[in-house]
Specification:
Elements lengths: L1 H6 L3 H26 L2 H15 L3 H11 L1
Helix pairs in contact: 2-3
Keywords: Coiled coil
InterPro entries: Rbsn_Rab-bd_sf (IPR036531)
Length: 68
């Protein structure tokens, strides 16, 4: 079964894994910018992270509609 997923990956699972990878990279970049004292970069990276991690209104609406 795992072998099948490697050959024919689930697109939703792939998107989730890619999103997690990007989130981890952003968190590392934020920490590095903090250590280096780059305040503007920290704020920019935090905004990018927030945009990536917060679901949009439409995503929440669609998921809620599917449940019922």
């Amino acid at each position: 079964m795992i072998f099948m997923n490697i050959i024919n990956p689930d697109p939703l699972e792939f998107r989730k894994m890619e999103k997690e990878r990007v989130i981890n990279e952003l968190e590392k970049a934020i920490q590095k910018a903090k250590v280096e004292g780059r305040i503007e970069d920290v704020e920019k990276l935090k905004k990018e992270l927030k945009d990536l991690t917060h679901e949009s209104f439409w995503d929440k609406f669609i998921k809620g509609s599917i449940m019922y």
